[in-house]
Specification:
This protein is an all-alpha fold and 787 residues long. Among the domains are: 21-139, no CATH class; 580-688, no CATH class; 702-787, no CATH class.
Length: 787
Amino acid sequence: MRKATTTGSAVSEKVRTRLEELDDLEEGSQKELLNLTQQDYMNRIEELNQSLKDAWSSDQKVKALKIVIQVRKLVYERILSMCVDSRVSLLDNFSPESVNDTAKETCLNWFFKIASIRELIPRFYVEAAILKCNKFLSKTGISECLPRLTSMIRGIGDPLVAVYARAYLCRVGSPVKYLFTATCLCLLFQQIHGDTVQNQLVVQCVEIPLYLTLYSPAIDWILQCIAYRAPEVLLTEMMERCRKLGNNALLLNSVMSAFRAEFIAARSMDFIGMIKECDESGFPKHLLFRSLGLNLALADPPENDRLQILNEAWKVITKLKNPQDYINCAEVWVEYTCRHFTNREINTVLADVIKHMTPDRAFEDAYPQLQSIIQKVITYIYDFSLLFSVEKFLPFLDMFQKESVRVEVCKCIMESFIKHQQESTKDPVILNALLHICKTMHDSVNALTLEDEKRMLAALINGFIKMVSFGRDFEQQLSFYVEARSMFCNLEPVLVQLIHSVNQLAMETRKVMKGNHSRKTAAFVRACVAFCFITIPSLSSIFTRLNLYLHSGQVALANQCLSQADAFFKAAVSLVPEVPKMISVDGKMRPSDAFLLEFLCNFFSTLLVVPDHPEQGVLFLVRGLLNVIQDYTWEDNSDDKVRIYTNVLHLLSAMTQEAYIYHVDKVDSNDTLYGGDSKFLTEINKLCETVIAQILDHLKTLGKEETLKRQSQLALYFFNTILAHGDLRNNKLNQLSVNLWNLAQKHGFADTKTMVKTLEYIKRRSKQPEMSHFTDLALRLPLQSRT
């Protein structure tokens, strides 16, 4: 048996190689034929003639056929070029009347030459190759030649050679309707089972099932040509022919492969009856049932027959001893089962697959088919509460022992869940199963895993986490997030999602309590805050940590967890010095200054409403942040430090207001704590003076010729800050603004239009009540031309 299988594999491989070669019939034939002289044309024909002889003598039959096809192209193109002076003017759908006598004479000459070939097979193939040339002689030339060529094939003694000759004839004669090939095809099977062929097979030690598979490609092609756009009555006729041939299995298989699935499905019970009567020794019945199953996956049989069809098919499938034969057939019928039956039948089928594929670890050689089965099941059962109620579904997954395949299957399941799950779930069966599947994906991550793969896995796990909701049972929800954190600690995007989810949980608790926490909810919110505070340091991305510290601090502040909020903000301040000069963004290294500037601006907006700690002193967070900014090493060609300092001035200016423009509900900010106390304002003024001194020092460093333009831009930027936030009734500040105005224009780099619009703005403001001091300021701000 093993020897026969090996021989079969070798023969099948040889057939496949030859078919692949025949698919590439264009090789070496793309030449510009119109530019050939008569002598060049004759030389090319002679060259092909010699190549044909050499190929045939060296048993390179495929190459010989390709050369014949090249000759056919040369002949057709040559005759076509004779029709008119310019080939372009001859339409593709030309008629014989538009062909001149010279071209017709040349065409006839070729057919006469071919008729003189004594050997049948060469004469047939060469004439079939130039069959298209009949268009030059008669409108019906091709259809008239086809019956004669078909009759020629009957003279070929070897049925295998004959069937491929018929296939080639169908290939070149496909535009013409011909039904006589159906009759000829039936005669072929009588020849196959004749004594001559059977005796040859015995001598050559070739088994019938293996021999018959050599016919399949040719017969399939012939029947596809016959069945193309054919009416349903033709299928009935072919079924009758099959019955007359004793339900020949090979022909029956090709019929089911060629005709439309709707036609086959409507006659499913008839086909099953014919399959049952087929001879098992000639062509395996399970292949016939597989072909039938492929049709039933595309079209539905009559409703009353569906269960009987499944029972009849599975009786045959379940008796198969060879695991590969079994799984190839079962894979097809799983889709039929999923389309038309309930979880009970699906569970029975899956159990049978497990039973057949588990012994001797047969599943290891059938991973593609097993994956296909999973895909079919989740395609039709996308309600996961129903899916996991299929008892054998999870045991079926256990057959995927190879990690790479197992992960792909898990990804497929999670993609289906995210796509089809419309509502959040707390079903313990779904949660436990999907947690196990997500854990499998997570555990596959290692040092060699690509970043794209990590992102995909994290996105699938995050999609699952977002769909889990325990409603008002917030404690159970937090417990789920804690468990998820322990399971998915190697995927950073998942940890980030968990932090956001826990922060959202804290805010939902606040919403339910309308901001008035009880002792229980206050403790719960602090637990949420602690979850975030513990998790954030495990992240590697420094800006992710900074933003999460800020976001989590805001959530803690909103829930009146003041000491916890301070801890988040202190952690953010202490992390700023660790920001690297360059960071990776979308795989490219970029300067981090812009990202740091954006973060600090957001941080300043939050610090406005953060109350001072009673034991830490006035504005302790602002002071700490200023110290960090001062010590941070900035790029020499960067002015971000000055831009940050100007934003600090915006913050300090807002802090001097009697009532801040926004607050956090039930949190007393510094405007309430200090109530405009003079000592508090004095501290703010001292900080302002320190910051202004830092800005002016930076402006002085830009006095070199190559940095004068930056100096001008920053001077005007600082001027606008003072104009918007400063009290210009203060003589020192007023004089500073005038000096900055003049510095912006000093070296001719100021934008005149901007300066004019700024001055117009000051003049308009001077007309408002309590802004009369702007009038004096406007008089002290000259406009200088570039010249």
